[in-house]
Amino acid sequence: MKVILTSDHGGVNLRKEVADLLTEMNIEFEDTGCDCEGSVDYPDYGIPAAERVANGEFDRGILICGTGIGMSISANKVPGIRAALVHDVFSAKATREHNDSNMLAMGERVIGPGLAREIVQAWLGTEFTAGRHQNRVNKITEYENK
Question: Which of 9, 65, 87, 133 is labelled catalytic?
């Protein structure tokens, strides 16, 4: 599995924690997030990361900003992306099992590093169950392709 990891200024610290976790898990990743303290615009980081997932360069992506909201909205504008804003372990598993999410968004100002690590582990370790959920994902893709 190959993962792209990015953040804006509001997610720098949590992104570093997630990068450490990915290293510990021996998951190949590229960190494209900012290392600045000054304000930057989340679409400038979220959209390019989503494009790289959508074009198949990466299997999945992890987005972090202050709340996760801006990053998830930006990423979901890219065709082929199913970015899920997640702040609990149950939702991390469900969004993989039911929605085949390919990007995870989290907010540094919403959750701490311990919970973020649990969420990432659950999200990366959970597979799409397909079955009845496949039809639902297909409907999203069909709409997207109109």
Answer: 65
Nearest 5°: the CA angle 48, 54, 60 is 90
| Per-residue pLDDT tens over the stretch 109-145 | 999 999 999 999 999 999 999 999 999 999 999 999 9
Q: What are the tokens at 139?
A: 């409907």
- Does the annotation mark 98 as catalytic? yes
Residue 108 to residue 144: CA distance in whole angstroms: 30
The structure tokens listed for 106 are: 């989290």
| Residue 46 vs residues 32, 126, 131: alpha-carbon distances, Å | 10, 23, 30
Quote the tokens at residue 32. 């494209």
DSSP 8-state secondary structure symbol assigned to residue 11: G
| Dist. CA 104–CA 120, nearest whole Å | 8
* Annotated catalytic residue, options 9, 34, 36, 98: 98
Tell me the pLDDT tens digit for each residue of 29-70. 999 999 887 999 999 999 999 999 999 999 999 999 999 999
| Among candidate residues 108, 50, 40, 107, the one with its CA nearest the CA of residue 76 | 50
